[in-house]
């Protein structure tokens, strides 16, 4: 692509915050400490998790950078950043979450395959850019369209990012055309994050943001947009990020029997406490995040200090005064809530948190029932253990 290159090695990586917990250096995969997540409703860019599959691309000429629109569309051509900047700009607050968030807890049941993420492989940001529906309309695809006259039903996003899983080819993923052309789905071609130009780690100069869907579909370093008749056939759509039952293992797996995972289930985690924490007295504050997919929003968060026998409802809050959000009230449905509860605990306690979304979906009690060989979508009740004693911290 003109204006952007994909390095063949890791010699041109951007700087990263020293507090990040690094799970892999090449490619770079890291998450912040869980306590850092609850310091701000909007996650600072430097503390936003980093999920990569290869060296970070480098843009050497933003004026020459463009995205090709191809496939089953009547008007294939390139679109440059100057054209995207002319379109109406939207600021959408949305939480992106890796499908492998909380994988380490699942791996304690039985070995799983994947990066060993704790509970902080997500972040909440204000994404600024053009709606994909507006971009596609420029190329003859009307809003609220499910099929083009030539049979296009899906929109494929292809990255400049090269990865070993694609045999050295580009990372790619797709969403249904009906979602891409629906302005209310808020799918963005984003060039800003938290009121500033995207950083390289997060897709500079242009990335896709698909709110409410696992992070794997929000393709970074966008190279092309293809209108295709069926789902993307790339590795990460067909041979990964699918939800299998606990009975499936690597000897009997059949990838074709499952759909690619899209919406994220209801999720929450405690971030103010580690497992195991020693506290100096019996009263503690329990803080964390809760989020769900599909634009449903969080109805409530329940907290227990006796392992789930009795519950109290946590207080929760969402948007604060953020100058670059403006009046985008619809953003609330894509964003997490931060919750807080205070309780007196006995000498030791198992503290549990679970969330309920607006459709009444609730997290499963035990991780065993949702264990899967890839360790994705661990949305079981989050548990931490504390005891009262003298802390050396």
What can you see in these coordinates?
With 393 residues, this protein is mostly beta strands. The protein folds into two domains: 4-257, Sulfite Oxidase, Chain A, domain 2; 267-388, Immunoglobulin-like. 8% of the residues lie in helices and 33% in strands. It contains six helices and 24 strands. The chain has helices at 34-37, 81-86, 103-107, 132-138, 177-180, 235-238; strands at residues 4-5, 21-24, 29-31, 50-51, 58-59, 66-71, 77-80, 90-97, 122-131, 154-162, 170-176, 188-193, 196-197, 207-209, 222-228, 267-270, 277-279, 283-291, 298-304, 312-313, 315-317, 337-344, 348-357, 382-388. The strands form six sheets. Strands 7-6-15-10-11 form a five-stranded mixed β-sheet. Strands 8, 9, 12, 13 and 14 form a five-stranded antiparallel β-sheet that branches. β12 and β13 form a beta hairpin. The protein starts with a strand and ends in a 5-residue tail after the last strand. This is Sulfite oxidase. Pathway: Sulfur metabolism; Energy metabolism; sulfur metabolism. Residues 260-388 form the Moybdenum cofactor oxidoreductase dimerisation domain.
């Amino acid at each position: 692509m003109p204006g952007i290159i994909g390095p063949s090695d890791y010699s041109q990586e951007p700087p990263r915050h020293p507090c990040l917990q690094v799970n892999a250096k090449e490619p770079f995969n890291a998450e912040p400490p869980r306590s850092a997540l609850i310091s701000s409703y909007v996650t600072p860019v430097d503390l936003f998790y980093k999920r990569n599959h290869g060296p970070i691309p480098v843009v050497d000429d933003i004026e020459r950078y463009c995205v090709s629109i191809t496939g089953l569309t009547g008007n294939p051509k390139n679109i440059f950043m100057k054209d995207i900047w002319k379109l109406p700009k939207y600021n959408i607050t949305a939480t992106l979450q890796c499908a492998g968030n909380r994988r380490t807890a699942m791996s304690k049941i039985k070995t799983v395959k994947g990066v060993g993420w704790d509970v902080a492989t997500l972040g909440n940001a204000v994404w600024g850019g053009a709606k994909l529906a507006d971009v596609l309309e420029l190329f003859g695809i009307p809003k609220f369209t499910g099929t083009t006259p030539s049979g296009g039903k899906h929109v494929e996003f292809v990255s400049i990012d090269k990865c070993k899983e694609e045999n050295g080819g580009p990372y790619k993923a797709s969403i249904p055309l009906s979602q891409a052309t629906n302005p209310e789905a808020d799918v963005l071609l984003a060039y800003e994050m938290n009121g500033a130009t995207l950083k390289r780690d997060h897709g500079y100069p242009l990335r896709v943001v698909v709110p409410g869907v696992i992070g794997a579909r929000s393709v970074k370093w966008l190279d092309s947009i293809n209108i295709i008749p069926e789902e993307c056939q790339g590795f990460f759509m067909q041979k990964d990020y699918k939800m299998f039952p606990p009975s499936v293992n690597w000897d009997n797996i059949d990838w074709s029997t499952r759909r690619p995972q899209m919406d994220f289930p209801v999720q929450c985690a405690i971030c103010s406490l580690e497992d195991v924490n020693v506290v100096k007295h019996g009263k503690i504050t329990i803080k964390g995040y809760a989020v769900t997919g599909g634009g449903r929003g969080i109805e409530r968060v329940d907290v227990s200090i006796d392992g789930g026998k009795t519950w109290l409802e946590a207080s929760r809050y969402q948007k604060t005064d953020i100058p670059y959000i403006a009046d985008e009230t619809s953003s609330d449905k894509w964003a997490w809530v931060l919750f807080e509860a205070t309780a007196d605990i006995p000498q030791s306690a198992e503290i549990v948190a679970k969330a309920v979304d607006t459709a009444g979906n609730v997290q499963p009690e035990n991780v065993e029932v949702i264990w899967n060989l890839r360790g994705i979508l661990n949305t079981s009740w989050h548990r931490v253990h504390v005891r009262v004693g003298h802390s050396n911290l």
